[in-house]
């Protein structure tokens, strides 16, 4: 196999953070998949290739299916992903990073709390919380949409599902961010130490909460998982890693898509007017926010056998990068793909992935978005951007604005 070397793909650059979509378009214009040496990965950028990979049962997330313990240890060392006892126990292993029977067993234990019916029951509680947040903004006519609003909602709601007391949720957000940051670009020892220390603190916190729920079960996910462990459906480490994953998975991503969704409405003011005039469009508008700026644009898979994609055979063990952010802008799948269309139908976007690992929290994320944007449009008059440029986070694995100052009139 002769990897291509002439690639102008710079996912860690400031230019990419500003606007990754021309880079993605250039990738899609190339034949087949593209080898990206820096990450040693074959990139799939077209919607059909991305879907094909994540729907293939011979594609897995965990290295264990294709490599022995020594090779895995060497790879971890090369990525500075080693010597992290708690991080490797509870973060590097998870429901998301397991496959086959282990994955199915773990997903089954928590799935029932995330169905549309169960999530729908949370609507009134989320609305009440969001109302108090908006009340706290009374008297102001300018805010940072991210820091003052978006950042407070997802962790708080997931915390409630899990059974974390409200007053502890801000701390969980900090732990969660400091652990997740180590998944992306900068694998320095300093960031590594922070990720391990915060995983340890998070672990101790969950141990304490678990002991409390064992003594006094409640109607929450923690109590449900305690019962699952008692019945032998998950072990202690799986319990902790699942609780951590659920608290972390929907945190940053929901904050990011709230920010980029708001930004999209500001960039396409006619779509915001359309949504104000017809609030029934909120469901399709939220779907479009996920398509337009997938907040988790990049994941990976390993092939467990030789596979043929785009006329080329890839050997067992090949690592593929699936670019959800690019697939969602593929004009072959979405007409006028770079346009934000609040009423886009159909809209089979892939921001939540597809196949075995399809996002567990997708209904919850959509409900959060629906409630926040519906409340925003009801409470605020004409909304405008109150900063000259909006800076997006750097990196390939996340997409979202760092801050987003908005102002409004009281029409
Ligand atoms: C903006 C919101 C969200 C986005 C864009 C998102 C996206 C994703 C994606 C793309 C995957 C699949 C990863 C892959 O293909 O390898 C995934 C998995 C997952 N998500 Fe989400 N997610 C969001 C919110 C949430 C929330 C709120 C929760 C909380 C419950 C959550 C929990 C999970 C879990 C547990 C998995 C692993 C599922 C499995 O492996 O079976 N996500 N998410």
UniProtKB/TrEMBL annotation:
Domain of life: Bacteria
Pfam family for this entry, one: p450
Transmembrane segments annotated in the record for this chain: none
The protein's required cofactors: heme
Alphabetical keyword list: Heme, Iron, Metal-binding, Monooxygenase, Oxidoreductase
GO molecular function: heme binding; iron ion binding; monooxygenase activity; oxidoreductase activity, acting on paired donors, with incorporation or reduction of molecular oxygen
Gene3D superfamilies linked: Cytochrome P450
InterPro entries: Cyt_P450 (IPR001128), Cyt_P450_B (IPR002397), Cyt_P450_CS (IPR017972), Cyt_P450_sf (IPR036396)
Protein family per UniProt: Belongs to the cytochrome P450 family.
Main function: Cytochromes P450 are a group of heme-thiolate monooxygenases. They oxidize a variety of structurally unrelated compounds, including steroids, fatty acids, and xenobiotics.
PANTHER family: CYTOCHROME P450 YJIB-RELATED, P450, PUTATIVE (EUROFUNG)-RELATED
Protein name: Cytochrome P450
